């Protein structure tokens, strides 16, 4: 697994060494640092994906079903390491860094994946022209209901969200293109959260996300494949129809691993729809 230590930092260490021997060589290296630094940063406007919501935003697709290429390191997706204390971006590697610090999915960390697998496939296939590499921050929490994402809730989910976003902003150039893939509602249906309240709280949550991620493209998943959450599917459709910058994807036909979670194939189906919906919006936005 590769951790991306900036080349500028490595050259700076060499510069300090050379200063003690030759100011001329040190001066040449200063020029090199300035030249290489531009290539060391993400090209153009970074495309940064944020996955958020309940357990399907983390995913329990079986890594064992993935191809050897899918199980190999994927440099095209730079995923935030959520457990090393530094929150650095590194090559996506299923079973190693793709599913971490996600409530209720701790038993799946080494064996499962979510939308990130097909996202990597799509990036490699050129789904986002001009962007051969994207960044990813996973922020979901299993079993969560919308009330638990309120900043005042004892869960601390919103605090963790902000912590991860702040870490991303520190590492990336200004004005990235944010894309939020949002999958939340099943646990509220199970908990019998009134639809009116869920919709109201979700709109408030989306407003907070937009404030943190200016210009974000937000795509929400629906749950047609589960065949029992029609009221929430309708509410999600209403939100997408009326809320600027928010879209939705239908999950009909996505294969389930159990009654509430997409499996390896189902995740590919839903992710590809998320990719296509996102790409259509990004066509109208500058990549640089």
Write the layout of secondary structure elements.
Layout: H1 7-19, H2 23-40, E1 47-53, H3 55-58, E2 61-62, H4 68-71, E3 74-80, E4 89-92, E5 112-113, H5 116-124, E6 134-138, H6 157-171, E7 177-183, H7 186-190, H8 195-212, E8 217-221, H9 230-242, E9 246-249, H10 264-282
Parallel strand pairs: 1-6, 1-7, 3-6, 7-8, 8-9
Antiparallel strand pairs: 2-5, 3-4
Explain this structure:
With 288 residues, the protein is α/β, with parallel strands linked by helices. It has two domains: 7-38; 43-282, SGNH hydrolase (Rossmann fold, 3-Layer(aba) Sandwich). The protein has ten helices and nine strands. A seven-stranded mixed sheet has the order 4-3-6-1-7-8-9, with helices on both faces. The chain has a two-stranded antiparallel ribbon with strand order 2-5. Helix 5 packs across helix 10.
Q: Per the principal axes of the C-alpha atoms, what is the gross shape?
A: globular
Largest sheet: 7 strands, mixed
Mean pLDDT: 90
| E-strand count | 9
The CATH topology of the largest domain turns out to be Rossmann fold
CATH architecture of the largest domain: 3-Layer(aba) Sandwich
The total domain count is 2
Total helices: the number is 10
Outline the low-pLDDT stretches. Answer: 5-16, 26-42
CATH superfamily of the largest domain: SGNH hydrolase
H/E series: HHEHEHEEEHEHEHHEHEH
Computed CA radius of gyration, to the nearest angstrom? 20 Å
Strand order of the largest sheet: 4-3-6-1-7-8-9
Oligomer: single chain
Share of helix among residues? 40-55%
SS-based class: alpha/beta
- What is the rounded distance between the termini? 29 Å
What fraction strand? 5-15%
């Amino acid at each position: 697994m590769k951790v991306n230590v900036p080349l500028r930092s490595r050259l700076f260490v060499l510069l300090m060494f050379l200063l003690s021997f030759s100011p001329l060589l040190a001066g040449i290296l200063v020029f090199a640092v300035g030249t290489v630094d531009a290539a060391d940063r993400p090209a153009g406007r970074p495309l940064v994906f944020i996955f958020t919501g309940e357990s399907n935003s983390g995913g329990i697709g079986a890594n064992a079903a993935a191809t050897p290429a899918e199980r190999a390191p994927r440099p095209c997706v730079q995923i935030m390491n959520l457990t090393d204390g530094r929150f650095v971006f590194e090559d996506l590697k299923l079973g190693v860094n793709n599913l971490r610090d996600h409530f209720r999915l701790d038993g799946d960390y080494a064996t499962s994946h979510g939308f990130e697998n097909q996202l990597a496939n799509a990036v490699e296939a050129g789904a986002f022209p001009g962007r051969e590499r994207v960044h990813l921050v996973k922020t979901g929490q299993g079993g969560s209901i919308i009330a638990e994402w309120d900043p005042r809730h004892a869960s601390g989910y919103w605090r963790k969200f902000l912590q991860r976003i702040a870490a991303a902003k520190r590492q990336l150039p200004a004005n990235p293109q944010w894309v939020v893939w949002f999958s939340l509602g099943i646990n509220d249906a199970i908990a019998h959260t009134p639809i009116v309240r869920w919709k109201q709280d979700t709109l408030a949550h989306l407003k907070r996300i937009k404030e943190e991620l200016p210009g974000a493209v937000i795509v929400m998943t629906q749950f047609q494949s589960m065949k029992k959450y029609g009221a929430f599917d309708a509410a999600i459709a209403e939100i997408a129809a009326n809320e600027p910058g928010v879209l939705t994807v239908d999950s009909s036909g996505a294969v389930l691993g159990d009654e509430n979670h997409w499996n390896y194939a189902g995740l590919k189906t839903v992710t590809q729809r998320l990719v296509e919906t996102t790409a259509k919006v990004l066509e109208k936005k500058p990549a640089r």
